[in-house]
Write a structure and sequence with these properties.
Pathway: Carbohydrate metabolism; tricarboxylic acid cycle. This protein has about 375 residues and is mostly helical. The chain contains 16 helices and three strands.
């Protein structure tokens, strides 16, 4: 055992994975050997799920079967809806509602008694969980708006179905394509905190519902999820202010403030996912004729690049810088942005659980004791 202390496990290798590779210097993200740009522009989220869970892209027949099965598993029971309604009455945060909803799904799991080492059963459970998460989130948002939840449709994609259940309107082709792309971009990203949490839980051979619920809990923390919400709140603050975006960013920097959506623990250059989402923000802007959010983000980026030189300091836009505006244009409530992250990343959590279970070993690191030594017990009446 090494005596070197690595706080936060930074730089510590704890597993090998064939799922995703991040090149922080070149700004590349790869899923199972495929560049994220190729997958984002050419594949669907369902294809990417199949790829992550099975190792290869599906044939047309395999994809049709996989997508049809997911469509048949989107429905959630009255017990979940009743619980979501109670949470809506208490104004619970969407991430907390999602955590509770996913945990409750296990009560209706048809393979709840499956051997935890049965990877096929785990894969089927994962498919059910991922299929139902959009239904949980859309139902919760409608319930807190005093609207009836909508039943999922079988003729829409995973992405399109969520937008329909959320808004009550069938999404445009641009909106569905954009949201599908956003789900692909967030599906996996190495051993981040929520993915590692899911792996730790599953390494005990706990059920997949526990592992995914643990991932949701980890993602709910502001140091992991929520940055895109911070970005959007910043843009809304600019929109409400009397300053133009350039003056706002100058004043914020001069006052020692920071701009959310910049910098990343892994990337030293622009996050490749940010580049892709910027193009989708441009597409949505063209469709809706509302240029505010694109103008604000472009102005801020121009100042931070040209005047502040942040890329020269290895600080560049990350995926959250543009995803906030994209979600806002799609009509998704700001406080649901981290939940959308979870909707996508749940597929990656399942993939890592499946992969790690091939050669499972209980994850059990050690800590170094730095407390007091040789203390003697004193009877309570003498203290």
């Amino acid at each position: 055992m090494t005596d070197a202390l690595k706080k936060g496990l930074e730089g510590v290798l704890v597993a090998e994975s064939a799922l995703s590779e991040i090149d922080g210097d070149a700004g590349r993200l790869i899923y199972r050997g495929y560049d994220i740009e190729d997958l984002a522009h050419k594949a669907s989220y369902e294809e990417v799920l199949y790829l992550l869970w099975n190792g290869d892209l599906p044939t047309s027949e395999e994809l049709e079967s996989f997508a049809d099965t997911m469509q048949s598993e989107r429905h959630i029971g009255d017990n979940v809806l009743d619980t979501l309604a109670a949470l809506a009455d208490s104004d619970e945060h969407p991430m907390a509602a999602l955590r509770t909803g996913v945990s409750l799904l296990s009560a209706a799991e048809p393979e709840s008694d499956a051997d935890p080492t049965d990877r096929d059963a785990t894969r089927r459970m994962g498919r059910r969980i991922v299929a139902k998460i959009p239904t949980i989130l859309a139902a919760y948002d409608r319930l807190r708006r005093d609207e009836e939840p909508l039943e999922p449709r079988k003729d829409l994609s995973h992405a399109g179905n969520f937008l329909y259940m959320l808004t009550g309107e069938e999404p445009s082709e641009t909106a569905e394509e954009t949201f599908d792309m956003a789900l692909i971009l967030h599906a996996d990203h190495g051993l981040n905190a929520s993915t590692f949490t899911s792996m730790v839980v599953s390494s005990t051979q706990a059920d997949l519902y526990s592992a995914v619920t643990g991932g949701i809990g980890a993602l709910s923390g502001p140091l992991h999820g929520g940055a895109n919400q911070d970005v959007m709140n910043t843009l809304l603050e600019i929109d409400d202010s009397e300053k133009d975006s350039l003056q706002w960013v100058k004043d914020t920097i001069d006052a020692g403030g920071r701009i959310p959506g910049w910098g990343h623990r892994v990337y030293n250059v622009t996050d490749p996912r940010a580049k892709i989402l910027r193009t989708k923000l441009e597409d949505l802007t063209e469709v809706t004729d509302d240029e505010r959010w694109l103008n604000y983000t472009s102005t801020i980026e121009g100042y931070l690049v040209d005047e502040m030189g942040l890329p020269d300091k290895d600080i560049a836009p990350n995926v959250d810088y543009y995803s906030g505006s994209v979600y806002y244009k799609l009509g998704i409530p700001v406080d649901m942005y981290t939940s959308i992250f979870a909707m996508s990343r749940a597929g990656g959590w399942v993939a890592h659980v499946l992969e790690y279970s091939e050669d499972n070993r209980l994850i059990r690191p050690r800590g170094r004791y730095i407390g007091t030594e040789d203390r003697q017990y004193v009877p309570i009446d003498e203290r």
